[in-house]
Amino acid sequence: MKFKFIQIFTVLFCLATGALAQPGVSYVTKKTIKAKTKKYFDKARKASKASDNEAALKYLGKALKSEPQFIDAHLLTGMIHYDMDAYLKAETAFEAAIELDPMYIRKVLYTLGITEWKLGKFEEAAEHFAAYLKVEKKNEVLLKKAKRYQENALFAAQAIKNPVPFKPKSLGPNINTTNAEYLPSFTADGELLIYTSRVRGQEDFYMSSNIDGVWQKGKPMQEINTPNNEGAQSISADGRFMVFTACNRKDGYGSCDLYFSEVRDGRWTPPANIGSPINSKGWESQPSISANGQAIYFTSSRSGGVGGKDIWVSHRKSSGKWSAPENLGSAVNTKMDDQSPFIHADNQTLYFMSKGHPGMGEYDLFLAKRGEDQQWSKPQNLGYPINTKSSEGALVVSRDGKTAYFASDRKLDVVEDSSFDNGKSGAETDIYSFVLHEAARPNPVTYVKAVVFDAITKKKLRAQVDFVELASEQNYASSTTDLSGEFLVCLPLGKDYALNVSKEKYLFHSENFALEKASDTDAVFLLEIYLQPIPTVASSSATPAEKKLLTEVKPIILKNVFFETAKADLRPVSITELTRLKKLLEENPDLKIRINGHTDNVGSDVDNLSLSENRAKAVYTYLVQEGIAADRLSYKGYGETIPIDTNDTEEGRQRNRRTEFVIVR
Fold first, then answer.
1. Which residue among 116, 220, 422, 625 is buried most deeply as judged by most CB within 10 Å?
2. Both ends of the chain: CA-CA distance in Å?
3. Mean per-residue pLDDT for 490-512?
4. If pLDDT is split at 50, 70 and 90, which confidence band does 390 have?
5. From 1.20.120.80, 1.25.40.10, 2.60.40.10, 2.30.110.10, which CATH number describes the 5-161 domain?
6. Alpha helices for 500-604 (secondary structure H)
7. The predicted structure's pLDDT at residue 11
């Protein structure tokens, strides 16, 4: 905000009337100046109060020509130039006054710092803020501001000397129009974009699909848009759940609330208020859904925060309800405004904008990382020229961490693309992308995208999907497929995961994702999963169709059952899968199974046969100890005799080393 120094000049002048010149410094004030020069000065003050700056500067020029060491004339000259945005001239005038006596009006040190800040002379600004902090003892408000400006100036000076790569590129005319487009959000596969567009003052959501690397023309989301404004949305990783902001609605809890809609049977449901405890009497906005769907980060002005607008998080309970929001604490939030959170798909890297952390000016963009202790790291400024003296808007980052997206109304030096005009479209705000420099990237993430079918009819199924972190045995993500049978779940690299897909009256399907040592985020998993119906009648009384179903049931590989090398000792990470098998048997008391063990061809036939049988027996023993009747179970080892892949590669041998179960009559 511009300081109107002319309006407060009288106050400053009164404060200076008792000031004494420093020993050895010779200057004159309005009290000691000769009458002719004072007359020029009084006319200048009168003209400035009348907003006739040109006349005021003319009279001040005459006064200073008559008496170059007239300190009050230098100060008033600087203030007039400042209010005219002539910061270089203002700087010269303030420096002249300070050279005569820096203590005449101490606040001029602060004012000069502000002037140099606006000129981008950050090192000089920092010096003058430091000088003001040394001499000011009473003005607590300005002391607080000067300290913040000094921190920002010191940061900005170094940031400009060490710029980060930043080459923004417009999303093109299918997205950016003569209207304002902003606040983009993407699905994890990068195929769907939701953004806000303001058309004749009305904020609505638009959707675009990415086909062969080109964003298609955005279309309004008619199922969600209303005659009221909608904005600040977040789309889930799978594109089936969206949270957004709406204000001043009849069902609202406060000024602005969070609302949600989800895809059911191919259509978005009517938007509904997400309710308490997320929404309060305060202001809730700018949500960000975690990739596993278990948390919503958002901005709120509710009580109990660190100060101003803070970033909060609410977690989904096992019941499906949302927990009481938790403030992210003083590591992230400051006494000033902190907002627009974006939690990356790694579930550990948070991007947000803040006025309170050292930066380039107003709102800067930062990132913070959550450690193993669940504590947030000291926020890292994304650097210049991503951040500037202007306020930067919200940022979202692609799943692979390489591309960032943001909206801006500032003039950008964009990357040229011959396929469309990269320049401003004429709107006040457009959406851009840029390659995010490595130091600001999140942890690598891949995703699993699959379709679930009935193994017999080949029809798509509604099914339960659960991902578990094997080491901790903690549930990472859960989902339910809709009529399309599809699901998409992001998996951060660095951990191993078990996938279990289940449905009542079907055998479960499991997959293992060994990502603890993985580093390639370009490797994604696209699967077709076929669930086998459970035969429900004994073979003696079964119909031909039922008998056929029984004979067509294929072995179910337990892909998350592991043994110690060359031993039959179950590893602890096998518990998740074995618990699932136990549950299947408990829910289907007539089901009888045989555990089969298999090995690769490394070693002798005799040893492999023995190892495979002992491993199958280990699973049998575990289930019996867990309460499954022994007469429902059997086991057998096949050694290396039934491979399902080649033994010429380690990957093939690994697939051949397996434990499975089959239904028996």
1. 116
2. 81
3. 95
4. confident
5. 1.25.40.10
6. 544-552, 575-587
7. 45
159 by DSSP, 3-state: which? helix
CA angle, 348 then 354 then 359, to 5°: 105
Amino acid in position 455: A
The answer to whether 328 and 311 are in contact (CB under 8 A) is yes
> Which amino acid is residue 18, in one-letter code?
G
What is the strand order of the sheet 464-469 is part of? 474-480, 464-469, 496-502, 509-514
Instruction: Measure the CA–CA gap between 63 and 597, rounded to whole angstroms.
Output: 101
pLDDT averaged over every residue in the chain: 91
The band of 189, judged by pLDDT with boundaries at 50, 70 and 90, is: very high
How far apart, in whole angstroms, are the C-alpha atoms of residue 560 and residue 5?
Answer: 71
Radius of gyration of the chain (CA): 34
Q: At 65, list the tokens.
A: 């020509």
pLDDT of residue 414: 64
| Residue 308 DSSP symbol | S
- How does pLDDT run across 5-64, given as a tens digit for each residue? 555 444 454 445 444 444 446 899 999 999 999 999 999 999 999 999 999 999 999 999
Domains 5-161 and 444-533 share a fold: no
Confidence (pLDDT) at 23: 45
Q: What is the pLDDT of residues 615-659, one digit of tens each?
A: 999 999 999 999 999 999 999 999 999 999 999 999 999 999 999
The per-residue pLDDT for range 291-308, each reduced to its tens digit, is 999 999 999 999 999 999
Nearest to 578 by CA among 494, 640, 498: 498
Per-residue pLDDT tens for 445-468? Answer: 999 999 999 999 999 999 999 999
Query: Residue ranges per domain, the chain?
Result: 5-161, 169-440, 444-533, 545-665
Integer Cα distance of 205 and 132 in angstroms: 49
Phi, psi values for residue 351, rounded to 5°:
-105, 140
Q: How far apart are CA 550 and CA 71, in angstroms?
A: 101
The DSSP symbol for 28 reads B
- Report the b/e string of 57-81 with b at 16+ CB within 10 A: bebbebbbebbebbbbbbbbbbbbb
Task: Indicate whether 545 pLDDT > 80.
Answer: no
Buried b or exposed e, range 220-246, using 16+ CB within 10 angstroms: ebeebbeeebbbbbbbbbbbbbbbbbb
**Which DSSP helix (H) or strand (E) runs through 449?**
strand 445-454
Find, among 383, 236, 368, the residue nearest to 295 by Cα: 236
Q: Has domain 545-665 been given CATH number 3.30.1330.60?
A: yes
Backbone angles phi, psi at 302, to 5 degrees: -60, 160
Q: For the residues 404-409, what does the mean pLDDT come to?
A: 92
Fold of 444-533: Immunoglobulin-like (2.60.40)
Six token digits for residue 20:
């004494």
Residue 279: pLDDT above 80?
yes
> What whole-number distance in Å separates Cα of residue 587 and Cα of residue 403?
47
Q: Whole-model pTM?
A: 0.87
